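hiii so my PI (J.) wants the whole complex modelled not just the main chain, which honestly fair. so below is everything: two entries, each one labled with what it is. i double checked the lines twice but i was tired so who knows lol
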Amino acid sequence: MTEQFEPTIIGFTCNWCSYRAADLAGTARMKYAPNVRLIRMMCSGRLDPTFVLRALSGGADGVMVTGCHPGECHYIEQNYKALRRFLLLQRVLVGMGIEPQRVKLVWASAAEGAKFAAETTAFVEEIRALGPLNWGKADDVPQTADDIQAAIEQGVDQKEAVS
Amino acid sequence: MTERVGVYVCHCGSNIAGTVDVVDVANWAEEKLAHLGVVVAREYKFMCSSLGQELIEKDIKELGLTRVVVAACSPHLHEKTFRTAAKNAGLNPYLVELASIREQVSWVHTDKAVATAKAKAVISGAVSRVIRNEALDELKVPINPNTMVVGGGIAGIQSALEIANAGFHVYLVEREPSIGGHMAQFDKTFPTLDCSACILTPRMVEAGTHPNITLLTWSEVVNVAGYVGNFHVTVKKKARFVNEELCTGCGICEEKCPKKVIDDVFEAGLGYRKAVYTPFAQAVPKFPVMDKENCTYFQKGTCKACEKFCPTGAIDFTQEDQLLHIDVGNIILATGYDLFDARQVSNYGYGRLPNVFTSIEFERLSNAAGPTNGTIVMRDGKSTPKSVGIIHCVGSRDKNFNNYCSVICCMQGLKFAHLVHERTGATVYNFYIDMRTAYKAYDEFYQRVLEEGTLFVRGKVAEVTDAARYSNEKGKLIIQVEDTLAGKQRRIPVDMVILSAGLQPRYDAKDVGKLFGISCSTDGWFTEKHPKLDPVATMTEGIYIAGCAQGPKDIPSSVAQGAAASARVLDKILQKEVALEPVRASIDKDSCSGCRICNGLCPFNAISFIEDDHVSDINPALCQGCGTCVAACPAGAISGTGFSDEQIMAQIDGLLMKNLEPEIA
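here's the output for the full assembly
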């Protein structure tokens, strides 16, 4: 029997919602997969997409981005900017030959400790199913916009199959 | 210069040490992170204790530490503690980082080896980050001493009076024509059976006449800008069509108005009001409002009876809604609750079976100033019920509706039982799931009602129906219930049913929360900063919550919260200035290309474009520090203090252990 692959995941959290959700999961002693290491930011809007690339190039197998639910941003609407960047980043990742589902966006309010724990565990399983991150080979990489879109949609299908 | 870093690993009793090998973690940090500047790593039983803090302070002074990492609980708990300790030892407080190894490690993982490894990674990230931290100074801004209280129920009135009595000005904003809230509708209050109006109206009058209170009734907040100490609030003062300067409150307009309207709000649909009206006799302020939808003049163009008879010429059909701009330093939200709509529980027949009443209808029915002058009668308006069933937990503790307990309904049901018994001599049944009579003198009231002969059936009522099966059920309402103490099904015929409906968040609580920048719990109540230790503050500084807006509660608790919120506000006012977190974005003008991408991103309008220099600029007092512009700047010209690119990149590398020196085999 081969040893189970334990992915390393970096999680970006918002000070006002998801970081507090993580705190709440702790206070309530909810158990979840230990593979995610968190970074606290003031807002998901602070997420520079290069942070995600830095994490992936530094050895992370996946990155979880969390923020307040749409309409509940502490800074009014900055989580929408995080959403926009996330969607663009997915396309960039595909262009680099990385499975887009290695980056996940989760909305979790400060009251949703249980959701935070469940989403974390689910994401770890998704990344475990994908295996360690391998930077794509040049000839595998989709070239046209249509190919990239197809790859993202295929990634979504695969994710649903896992969960 | 290399920084000198101290790492402090907390046991938190066994909370951390039970799952994380703290000694191993400290030793590892001292050895493996030494090249980053770690000169000392210690573990201690309780870092937050005064001895733990002294340990850090001593090291700062004696070992000349320039950076501190405390691996303990969440920064939301003790960041301030350790920052203060550093400050006491002469180190800038922003050179301290917390690594959360309790909430995010020891409490959520079980395998000791895995938890220990994760704790090391978290500390490694914090060390990499802290050596890139900058010394920061808090931003001091003055506090406007005026306060706004939104909601004129008993919680809001109490808040306003406390602050006004302390000598500071309050704007009390109320959506309805009068302050008083739900309490003004009640007849008696449990458990003392005090007359509700007798204890409430003196407070209303005090608030209405207080020199430090500006009463804004028939008004709503439409916009909130600014931040703690300096909020700019826009209030819409709806047209009353009555000139408040001239009106004496004599009531002649109301008397002469020919148009009768069913009063759905104050009388819960059981009574009438006129098109120009004050909701009740003791209303504060005494000025009536005109209901445009029902006014004959507004609808048909003729009438003006009120204007003809008004002795002071106060009626003004041309009045328009006004927008008032008010600057305040702090805001208390006491916006209250909505009653659960009992129609949703269709098996209880409210709205279909005439003699099924809601709790608020019964309050009006039993109120001496209500539509029946306090006579408890059935829907026909004349017959007295001989038997009454009171059903608890309607819409509460029910997965189909609201999962929570509405707190007040048990005591309310007991109060109703007492009133029915006292005034009609009817047989009274209470149907309850669990009897909840916590708090002072509540259970004694339960015992009193028991002794009065009220019958109690433990069980959730399945159905209220008028379909008689037996001769004694004819013309009655039959309550079908499982008596869980006797272990059998019962059918109890009664004349009248009262539904003790639960409390729910205001229908627009979410929108109001958004307006003031605070959040709601999953149930929809406003979220407090800490459920136990900070129940009236919110995550947004300068915004406080009180009363049922925060969650279901009775009158004493609402009053206590109103006073508590005021104490918090007074504390802020007396400090005269507030220290804002120095987490702010700033633009390096030499790197800024003037592309203006950041200009449209800021929700607080903190970024402006300086045409002359062709660069953008950030106003630090308006910046809230979200960092969205920092992430967006293509030139990397914007940096965010406390959350700079360098700090976050370093933390990423640290968490991934990329900061360790390569092992030489």
